[in-house]
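re: ur question from yesterday

yeah so i grabbed the chain u mentioned. its 252 aa long if i counted rite. heres the sequnce exactly as i have it in my notes:
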Amino acid sequence: MSSVFLGILGSSLAAESSRLARAEAMFAERCRTAGEKIDRTADNVEGILLMKLRPKEINYGDQFRMDDPYGRDFGGDAYIRSFLKGFFEANYRRPEMARPNAPPHVAYQYVEALDPADGTRYRYTGRIDQPWLRDKRYGEWVREFVFDKSPAPGPGPRYGVTYNDISTREEREHWIAGSSLKVIDLKTNEVMAERIGYMMDRGQGYTSGGRAPWLLAADNACPPFAPRHGATAQPLQTENFVEKVLKPKLEN
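ran it thru and got these structure tokens back, copy pasting raw so excuse formatting
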């Protein structure tokens, strides 16, 4: 092995090490501003407005797509369903889907959102169906979530939920993604609560062997998602935060 090749290899490794060190320093600096800030809560909330929906597709490794990889949750209609009563019971209380130490998940009686396809505001509701009551081939524990959609009646909900990707170009160049999640009183335009989060891919975009940089970045996040396999804890993260602020109305 020639000394020229070794010199080039050494320079390349040194450059990668320096780049990672710069990324980690930048990430540590951002984490000092991360966290949850709740200024006000509301009780007995029946429904909310989702001011922005999540994309259906997961961003596994598009470095500069500003679609909030930190805030990644369910996509498309599943994101809407995750805020409705019955969704958690039907999907996460089955034995094979149970999450140990999962936070309480009461959820809301309805959710409203603008359909980007036609610009109409729709109201979404959910309910649990028990198919074993009709068909004994099903186990008694089976619960299916039924999702209903209709044009929203009258004025919209008082409280809204939105998110934004707050990454800068420089942060994305170092594989850092920043996120803002807000709960807003739409009557007063007051931001009731906000969560700021950041995550960084320590592999700096390495994709060999099917590696997915943004999924693995969830293991290196502030606030953290989980001690291990952070990407598996990202679904339901939005509803979990919102429920801390907008306390759902309990059924009588």
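noticed a couple things. The longest strand covers residues 190-200. also Helices lie at 3-31, 77-81, 87-92, 169-173, 213-217, 237-245.
anyway ttyl
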